[in-house]
Amino acid sequence: MADRKRLLIIGTAQQCHIENFLNSVDRNKTEVQLLLPERDRGAFNDEKTTYFSGAFHPFFLPLLRTIISFRPHETVIVCGMTYDHDNVVRAVLFYANFYNLRIQTCIRNELFAADSDLKHGPIKEICKWAGLGAIALLIKAVSIFKPVRIGEIYSSRLGHLALDCELYLSEKELGRHDGYLDLFYFKDGQVANQTLGKLFSRKMHINKNFRYLLEAVNFFNLTDKHALKLNTRKISLGRDYECLIQQTDTHVSFTSAEKERGRQEIATLGLDPDRPHVCLLGRDSAFLYQTMPESDGDMQEPRNMDISTLKAGAEELLRLGYNVIRIGSIVQEPLKIEHPNFADYASSGKQNDFMDVYLPATCYFFAGAQSGPMHVANTFRIPCLRINVVRLEVIEYCSPEDLALFKLIRSESSGRILSIPEIINAGISKCPIENFADSDFTVIDNTEDELLEAIKEMHLRMNGEWKTTAAETRLQQHYRSYLKVSNYNTRFETPISSYFLKKHADKLFNSKDS
């Protein structure tokens, strides 16, 4: 037994990923010690485990004690996808200065050598400790007069950037942040959209150097009083689960010069800028694969759709007199429609940072997949038709002005469509999207006729012309009866497409489990 390798596993991902990695370890040759966040207490009772809360740094006590007492030969950091884990890697690498310690990260059961560039020598780390100590003292001193808090904006993805900032401003309008001096920075200096970052910077104190303040707060465990968690930190999925947007006004706006630029650029697309436009968005994997090839793009496949299924709906909107603009920054296929009032902006070669925001921010309504550009529309209080949603409890049900329809789910073993109660009872109505990979469940995209009818309904609702029948009201009530308040939704105001519910009522509601 003396020859067994000592392996320290630091788990920062979901429990399923930690469990998967544990199952791959040869216990006959390896002694395992877990270092897990408090949220996982009790999940691995059969393992030797130390729990932690707080941010990692080289002198983080749970890590220091584990290194001294266990003295691992190897450390594996099991990582999730929403946040990077450089702080954990950097903290563990510090101890490689003193003895031969192998350090790897595990992402989706693949092992990668730790980035050696994150390794700091002892002297540099001690100097850093002293500098952060001075910053921490400054924060405490200023807080005597006005409490200081620092927040990190998860800004590398458009939707998170929009929600982190807009929901903070909504909370501020509701009085939740009165009396505080709140300072922010864009995570890693990466901003998915510079225009949107600029709009929010007009309303929030955002500066890249404020990251050092949060580092000091984390290093000296001052997070309870001086760290401000924004939406992504509170719920990694990124959503307005309290429906704050419906309770508040729009907080950011374009200047007169910016509005004029937007009108001119719409004209360069060959469209009349005085005609109301509808934005269409079809999600595919092209953006993630090209901009973030190391991300979980392949695991997000169930969220994708075929853009051609929006063609009939687009042609109906054109018949009704709208400009129709297919948006997106990097896409797999164009939407092929020949009409003077249609523009495939995403494939036009005229796509730019400013118009990526201006178009969804100023449209009459938005129709598309729940994705970053839709969160921009939400920021500007634009009504949205949410299509092809995989997990029905992940639909944002906040606004009665919105409309939604979700993907049907088929069980491959039984060959039939699951009913709503079966979906909920199986735990796939709000499970992580990666759970669909290699599962018994296949998602079925919304069809062209379903999208066409939903777009017709959205148009009528927007113009106050939609008339709901008694039968349709009963179907909506039946559907909502299955939904429960959770950390995903606190209100259920958004209706589901009437055509979609009627078309599939026998499958969605008639079940032995309903």
Write up this protein.
- This protein folds into three domains: 5-118, 3-Layer(aba) Sandwich (Rossmann fold); 122-247, no CATH class; 256-509, Glycogen Phosphorylase B (Rossmann fold, 3-Layer(aba) Sandwich).
- Helices cover 35% and strands 17% of the residues.
- It has helices at residues 15-23, 61-70, 86-93, 122-142, 158-173, 194-201, 210-219, 223-226, 231-234, 256-268, 286-291, 311-319, 353-362, 372-379, 420-425, 448-462, 470-480, 498-503, 505-509; strands spanning 5-11, 30-37, 49-52, 74-79, 102-107, 110-113, 148-153, 181-186, 205-206, 277-281, 323-326, 342-344, 365-369, 384-389, 403-406, 408-411, 416-417, 441-444.
- The protein is α/β, with parallel strands linked by helices and 514 residues long.
- It has a six-stranded mixed beta sheet. A six-stranded parallel beta sheet has the order 12-11-10-13-14-15, sandwiched between helices. It has a three-stranded parallel beta sheet with strand order 7-8-9, with helices on both faces.
- It is globular, with a radius of gyration of 25 Å.
- α4 (122-142) crosses α7 (210-219), α5 (158-173) packs parallel to α14 (372-379) and α12 (311-319) runs parallel beside α16 (448-462).
- The model has no long low-confidence stretch (mean pLDDT 91).
- The relative contact order is 0.08.
- The protein has 19 helices and 18 strands.
User: What's the total helix number?
Assistant: 19
The CATH topology annotation of the largest domain reads as: Rossmann fold
The Cα radius of gyration reads: 25 Å
Tally of DSSP β-strands: 18
Report strand order across the widest sheet. Answer: 3-2-1-4-5-6
In CATH terms, what is the architecture of the largest domain? 3-Layer(aba) Sandwich
As a percent range, the share of strand residues is 15-25%
N/C terminus separation: 55 Å
Name of the CATH class of the largest domain: Alpha Beta
| Percent of residues in helices | 25-40%
Structural class, by secondary structure, is alpha/beta
Biggest sheet, in brief?
Answer: 6 strands, mixed
Q: How many domain regions? A: 3
| Cα shape | globular
